[in-house]
Amino acid sequence: MSANNGEIKKMMIILSKGTLENVYAAFVLANGARMEGIDAEVFFTFFGLEAIHKKKLSHLHVATVGNPAMHIPTMLGGLPGMEALASNMMKKEMEKIDMPDVQEFLDILSASGVKMWACKLAMDMFHYKKEDLFEGVEEVITVGDFYMKSEGEGVHMLFI
Amino acid sequence: MEKTIAGKSIAVNEEGYLTDFKQWDKSVGEALAAEAEINLTPRHWDVLTYLQTEHKNEVPLSIRKIGKSGVVDIKEFYQLFPKAPLKTATKIAGIPKPASCI
């Protein structure tokens, strides 16, 4: 058996949520890995698929309900328009710190060599087709396929 | 600390980045590129010169800015400097490692 000195060689990131803050977390981690010379792949499943669905990816929102760190009372967070308001505020702040929007971020990830996969089960559940997705997505695969791609030393897996 | 690069004694930090850009010249860049196993072509020099100009103008560097530079796109940037492109390219260019997460 060859010894691994703890070096991270590849990050396998599973994105299961479609809220803006989670999507950005996954994207920043994937991009940050590539910037360090670490390979990165993202498996989009369940609501995470919204981040690669062409018609939806530009309309993602932050969660204003059930998120104490937002400091918006849950009752107010549920009012119509609150999610859009909070999301717009967040998007403005992100632009200030040079954070790309979701579409541009996907283009950056794709150009940086991040491999993107869509979960077959979730695709079937939401009745999505491969052509509904961002062009940079490689393929629709099963969870078993994803595990096969995760083999090797120095590979880490992250669930968001 | 001091390190001998291209026959000259050069001040570098613990990660090997030059701490005084005035000590940089093309032969230092060539030597640092050889350490990173990169053979510099005119395209590499286009990017390195761009990075140095941005640094001189105190523009914070990020992958996103590289993509919008008009000098190189992100895909080519990764081809030119395959492992950790921004870190490697800034080191060869003799400028500090960018602190950006994007």
Folded structure, characterized:
The complex is a heterodimer of chains A (160) and B (102). In chain A, 37% of the residues lie in helices and 17% in strands. Chain A has one domain (12-149): DsrEFH-like (Hypothetical Protein Ychn, Chain: A). Chain A has helices at 20-35, 74-77, 82-96, 102-111, 120-126, 143-149, and strands at residues 10-15, 39-44, 115-119, 137-141, 155-159. The longest helix of chain A is centred in the N-terminal third of the chain and has 16 residues, at 20-35. Chain A is globular, with a radius of gyration of 17 Å. The mean pLDDT of chain A is 91. By secondary structure, chain A is an alpha/beta fold. Chain A contains 6 helices and 5 strands; from the N terminus they run βαβαααβαβαβ. Chain B is mainly α. Chain B has one domain (2-93). Helix content of chain B is 45%, strand content 8%. Chain B has 5 helices and 2 strands; from the N terminus they run ββααααα. Chain B has helices at residues 26-35, 42-56, 63-67, 74-80, 85-93; strands at 2-5, 8-11. Chain B has a two-stranded antiparallel sheet. In chain B, helix 1 (26-35) runs antiparallel to helix 5 and helix 2 (42-56) crosses helix 5. The longest helix of chain B has 15 residues, at 42-56. Chain B is globular, with a radius of gyration of 13 Å. Chain B starts with a strand and ends in a 9-residue tail after the last helix. Chain A binds chain B through residues 28, 31-32, 34-37, 98-100, 104, 108, 111-113, and chain B through 60, 62-65, 67, 73-75, 78, 82-87, 100-102.
Percent in helix of chain B: 40-55%
Mean pLDDT of chain B: 93
The total count of strands of chain A amounts to: 5
CATH architecture grouping of chain A = 3-Layer(aba) Sandwich
- In DSSP terms (H or I, runs of 4 or more residues), the helix count of chain A works out at 6
| Total helical segments of chain B | 5
Radius of gyration of chain A: 17 Å
As an assembly, this protein is: heterodimer
Name the overall outline of chain A: globular
| Lateral arrangement of strands in the main beta sheet of chain A | 4-3-2-1-5
Low-pLDDT parts of chain A are none
- Run of helices and strands of chain B: EEHHHHH
Number of strands of chain B: 2
Major sheet attributes of chain A: 5 strands, parallel
* Lateral strand order in the biggest sheet of chain B: 1-2
Structural class of chain A: alpha/beta
Q: What is the percentage of strand-forming residues of chain B?
A: 5-15%
CATH topology of chain A: Hypothetical Protein Ychn, Chain: A
Distance N to C terminus of chain B: 29 Å
Instruction: Give the SSE order of chain A as H and E letters.
Output: EHEHHHEHEHE
